[in-house]
Amino acid sequence: MATFENLLYSLDAATGILTITLNRPSKLNALNAATIEEIREATQQALDDSQVRGIILTGSGEKAFVAGADISELAALNDISGRRAAERGQEAFCMLEESTKPVIAAVNGFALGGGCELAMACHMRVASENARFGQPEVNLGLIPGYGGTQRLTQLVGKGKALELLLTGDQIKAEEAHRLGLVNHVVPQAELLPFCEQLMTKILSKAPLAVGLVIDCVNAYYDKEMNGYQTEANSFGHSFASDDFREGTTAFLEKRPAVFTGK
């Protein structure tokens, strides 16, 4: 098992819920290259670990989920190294998005720039009341590089995405909820308990079906895939599973299902 310098990796073996906490509080959890690499490594470790059933991603402290990228590091990039940095960030964030284990972002404070992009790569977002979202890269003469132009458009629509990207404006949690950028807004003290409750509800369902749903929804946004065909294939695949037989049997016998993910 890998060890990490910039994040905390905590698995509750009883529930299967893994909490990954970005842990650079002196930098408001800002993303640098080392942290992005650790996110990639932690995600791969979680995907490979059968004990991990779901992932909650959050930031240390109450001020910031991730306040953005490490500007001092960005200042040293050029056109070639900048493109490579974007590609590495996109690869790490796509691993979260494509995970068949559910991923919830618990957004506790600022989620700006790369932080907003990281939250959007998760399957769902729950925000504390003090959360702030934004893509302020244009203020630095930059654009988002870790998928922000794509995922923000998917979540809030072209017009509003362009407004937020071109003005660099920040929005409060309630506005983010109204736009569909976040699923829920809760008081700060209730953020992690709420996310754990939501994850527990998801994990009570058939794991194979949960993973197939994630695949199908992602296929809608993949220009190289036919989402309807992916759904049909996945629907057929589910009939061959032990979980399908257990689910239908439990329903007919009027008892809770005991799923195995097979």
TrEMBL record:
InterPro entries: ClpP/crotonase-like_dom_sf, Enoyl-CoA_hyd/isom_CS, Enoyl-CoA_hydra/iso, Enoyl-CoA_hydra_C. Keywords: Lyase. The keyword Lyase applies. GO terms for molecular function: lyase activity. CDD domains: crotonase-like. Pfam families: ECH_1. It comes from the Bacteria. Belongs to the enoyl-CoA hydratase/isomerase family. GO terms for biological process: fatty acid beta-oxidation. The lineage of its organism: Bacteria, Pseudomonadati, Bacteroidota, Cytophagia, Cytophagales. This is Enoyl-CoA hydratase.
